[in-house]
Structures are given as structure tokens and as C-alpha cells.
Design brief:
It contains 6 helices and no strands. It is mostly helical. The radius of gyration is 23 Å and the shape is flat.
């Protein structure tokens, strides 16, 4: 059971980190400084380990006081909100729902700009 938890974490983190901005940053650093690849590897590994240490500590503390089920639901709602907000921003849903408010705001800005 412990090996399964380790393996699941390992595979999930590898899949999530592939193509992540952290990996792009490390790629850029190592391409700019090819002679210092071992320093970049060590610094990156230490930085990621520190981040994971913070995440594990906060996660374990939250699980102790709040409970994993509430954390799972809260993170699900946060991901859902971020996804819907991103889709809404992409398709300009706010402008389609509140078209008058946008026209009023545009009308308020235009006379001030034209008066100058």
C-alpha cells in the first residue's frame, strides 16, 4: 500500500510537471548556461523540494483540522470556478450578459476623452 501511494504520487507529479512553466524555466536556464548544468540541476531540485515540503506540510495540517473530504470538495469548486472564469473571459460572457452596462461605461469614457 505504501508503494502504491509512492508510485501514484511519482507518476502524477511527473505527468503534471511535464511542460509546466517550471520546466520551461529550467530549460531556459540550462540553455543559457550550458556549463553550469549541475548547478542548475541542484538548485532546481532543491527549490522544488522546498515547494513540495511546504505543500505537504500545509496539506497535512489542513487535512488534520478540516478533513480531506472538505478539502477535496473545496479544491473541486476552485478548479470549477477557475475553469468557468477562464471560459467566460475567453468568450466575453460578461459583455454578452450585461451589454447595457458596458455601453454606459463606454459612453461615460468617450465624452471625457472627446472633451480633451
Amino acid at each position: 500500500m505504501k508503494f502504491f501511494a509512492w508510485l501514484t504520487t511519482y507518476v502524477l507529479i511527473i505527468l503534471c510537471e511535464l511542460g509546466d512553466k517550471t520546466q520551461v524555466a529550467v530549460l531556459m536556464l540550462s540553455s543559457n548556461h550550458p556549463g553550469k548544468k549541475w548547478l542548475i540541476l541542484g538548485a532546481s531540485a532543491l527549490a522544488l523540494s522546498c515547494c513540495v515540503l511546504i505543500e505537504v506540510t500545509v496539506g497535512a495540517t489542513l487535512a488534520r483540522y478540516i478533513g480531506p473530504q472538505i478539502i477535496n470538495k473545496a479544491t473541486g469548486w476552485v478548479f470549477l470556478f477557475v475553469g468557468l472564469y477562464t471560459l467566460g473571459s475567453h468568450f466575453n460572457i460578461r459583455q454578452k450578459i450585461f451589454p447595457r452596462q458596458q455601453k454606459v461605461n463606454n459612453h461615460d469614457i468617450t465624452p471625457n476623452f472627446m472633451d480633451r
